[in-house]
Structures are given as structure tokens and as C-alpha cells.
User: Fold ATP-dependent 6-phosphofructokinase from Pseudoalteromonas gelatinilytica.
Amino acid sequence: MKKLLLLTSGGDCPGLNGVIRAVVKAAEHDGNWQVYGSRRAYCGVLEKPNDIIHLTSEVVAGIHVRGGTILETVNKGNPTAFPAEIAGEQVFIDRSDELISTIKQLGFDAVINIGGDGSHRVSQHLFEHGLNIVGVPKTIDNDLYGTDYTIGFQTAVDTATEAIDRLIPTAQSHNRVIVTEVMGRDAGWICLHSAIAAGAEVALIPEIPYDIEAIKAKLTSRFDKGHGFANIVISEGAKPIAGGIVSKQSNERGYENPVLGGIAEQLASQIRVALDLDVRVTVLGHIQRGGTPNAFDRVLAAEFGVQAFELVKQGQFGFIPVSKDGEIKPISLKEATSEYRVIPLEHSLITSARAMGMCLGE
Ligand SMILES: Nc1ncnc2c1ncn2[C@@H]1O[C@H](COP(=O)(O)OP(=O)(O)OP(=O)(O)O)[C@@H](O)[C@H]1O
Ligand SMILES: O=P(O)(O)OC[C@H]1O[C@](O)(CO)[C@@H](O)[C@@H]1O
Ligand SMILES: [Mg+2]
Assistant:
């Protein structure tokens, strides 16, 4: 029997458990592979004693409907810059060779890492250093290059849309402006999808730095015409034309990404100063990462899981199945990590939003 190691890394999202289940079921159906899971990404391999569990169809039964990941995850355990303490000093050390040799010593023939852009940059590095690894695209942000969809994105859009749906009547009842901040890092996928789905008046995405004058004009016209309310959806990574993103550095050891958040409050203050309007802010936050995966994400999770296992069986390492133009097909991890996937300015989402009169802050 061959041995396969499975892990989830980066932020959790709905659909991760569906991939885990699909890989385990496909492996059991194949009959030649045993599947194990490393908990908290590679921490399960690097910890002493290790924290690796055997994944059987009994363990994964029914998990595809549950959010989160039964394997747990981390977004601060980069094995190439692992936080450590040496002689009382806080340092970062490259543990990738140790990681790869431990995985081999434990008898694993291959690894499947379910991750987003940050995780797959690590996967590509490990592949270049001799690890037999295959990726699976996940993240609510939908910002992984080479795939039209990542697992978790559609469910996050549903969650954000439902929240904005709920905010519209209260904005209307109180004649207010409500600014809703959504996740997505430096890409506006969640923002623009949920703004269009809910029918927001303004959507502000990182791809189009916003002009406060354009927003003021839109709001003035909304209130002048007697509609008397407006809903603005803003990406956590959005920025004004004359200014930067709102972010801070995390004080958690090993946390590499800037912590985004606060742009909605900044915009609300600007609106209050410029116009005599009541403004409220809602930050959706990690609610977007929770909940049961919708049917789309469950199906995508099943397809990605099965395809990733196929790649392992065929020895096609350094690859990742993606969803492109309605087909599931493999591309190299090198390609998937070669660019960051923002919304192209000519994308139909942007032209459709503009055509319906939605203000994109320009
Ligand atoms: N396999 C891994 N094991 C442990 N830590 C990892 C692993 N892969 C990545 N990391 C850490 O997590 C960070 C990636 O987190 P990031 O939030 O960017 O994840 P992601 O994969 O892009 O998914 P998402 O964007 O959905 O959170 C990396 O910078 C690194 O510190
Ligand atoms: O779980 P954390 O560390 O707060 O990460 C938040 C980030 O993770 C994501 O939810 C997924 O990448 C981003 O949208 C957000 O900026
Ligand atoms: Mg990411």
C-alpha cells in the first residue's frame, strides 16, 4: 500500500472537508493507497511527537456538509521561515529540508495540500526541493491565479449577499447609508459578486481606487431623488485614489500577511464629514468563512479532491487541478503562483455593474 499525506493550510473556508472526504473515498475506491492527515498544516509533521491521523471513510463520513477543516489549519507556520527561539532569541528558520525528509522517513509517497495563493507558494518551493506534492485550490478570496473558482468562494458570496440583503431594509427604514466591509484581500471578487447579487448602489474594490467625489455624487443623487438610502459594499483591500489600504502588521509570531480591515470606517467618516447623512458600518469578518458549504462548493470540492488524487496516482507532482471555462484540468503550481488573481478591468462583472448604474467609485 502507498501512503498519501493530506493537509489544509491558510485560512479555513467552507468546502475543505469535502475535499478531504473526496480524496479518502477515491483512495479507498482505488484500493492501493492509505490516506493520513497532518493537523494544522505542516505543524503536524514538524511537532514532536507528530500529530498525524489516519483518515478512513469512517472518519470522513458526512463531513462534506460541515464548515472548517477536521484537520485544522494555520496561516502562520511557513516551513521556509518557521518561528523559533534559539538561545532566548526569536528567529525564523528554514525547516523545509527537515520537513521533506521527515515526510519521506514517515513513509509518505505523496502529499496533497489544500490551500490558497500563500500556501501554494510554499508548495511550489517544497516541490522544487524534492517533495512529491499536488495542490488543491481553496480560499474564500478567489484570488488564486489560473482557476475561475476556488473552494469556499461561492459560499462566502452567499453569506455576504444574505447579510447585505438584511442590511438593505434597515438602511431604507432609517434613511441611512450602510457601508458593509467584506473580505477578499487585494481582490474584489467577494465584493463585486455580493454587491451585484444584493443590488447595492456602490461597490468599492481594490482593482479600482475610489474617488470620494464620485461616491458623494452618487449618494447625493440617491438622497435627492427621494430614495433616501444607500448601501455601499467595500473590499477590505480597497483604497482611495489619494491614499493607501488600511492595514496593520500582526503581532502574532510567524504571521506574514498584513492584517486588513478598517477601510469601511474610514469611508464612513469621510461621508459624514462631506454630507449630512447618517452612516452605519458593518464589518462581516470571519462570518464569511463559516457555515455549511453550498452545493456549488461541495461539488467543486468533490471534483478537485478526485482530480488531485488522480494526479498523485499518475505521479504528476507540482500540479494543481483548476476550474477553467467549465472544465477541471491540471496546471502547474508554478503557473498558479506566477501571478495574483484580481478582477481584470475589462471583466463582464465590472462592465455589467457599470451598465446597471452601480457606482464603482470612479
Ligand atoms: N503548508 C503550510 N503549513 C504551514 N503554514 C503554511 C503552509 N502554507 C502556508 N503557510 C503559512 O500560511 C501563510 C498563508 O496564509 P494565507 O492566509 O496567505 O493563506 P492562503 O493559502 O493564501 O489561503 P487564504 O488566502 O484563504 O487564507 C503563509 O504565508 C505561511 O506563513
Ligand atoms: O484568519 P485571519 O488570520 O484573520 O485572516 C483573515 C484573512 O483571511 C481571509 O479570510 C482569507 O484569505 C482574508 O479574506 C482575510 O484578509
Ligand atoms: Mg490567500
Remarks:
- The chain has a mean pLDDT of 97.
- The pocket of adenosine-5'-triphosphate (ligand 1) is lined by residues 9-11, 13, 41-42, 74-79, 113, 115-119, 122, 139, 141, 256-257 (CB under 6 Å).
- The two ends are 59 Å apart (CA to CA).
